[in-house]
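WARN retry 2 of 3 for item q-0093 after timeout on previous attempt; input resubmitted unchanged.
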Amino acid sequence: QVQLVESGGGLVQAGGSLRLSCAASGRTVTTYAMAWFRQAPGKERDFVAAITWSGGITYYADSVKGRFTISREYTKNTMYLQMNSLKPEDTAVYYCAAALYYSDAVGRRRESSYEYWGQGTQVSVSS
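OK item q-0093 returned
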């Protein structure tokens, strides 16, 4: 089992920044990759970014490329999402997810590739 706890969400004005954290505990040694997804009101949950745990290979949704940066602190079992130049359309609940197994670049963007999920943290961007 892997437990995930997100933090760092909040309300920010357009153009501002936030940094989300996801602390992992439990059998983290088995984690292959971690990711951020988000779900806006009335919409499906969408992929935001992912990172492989040991190699640090990153993947981004086109909508956040160049504005968001995913990273991990291996010794602290913590993943981060630095979000800059935030837009109102970034408003959503952001979820942290962990995968135990390898997936290719396409699979890394699918919810079904992740076995564990956090409870989510709200990010609201005002115009």
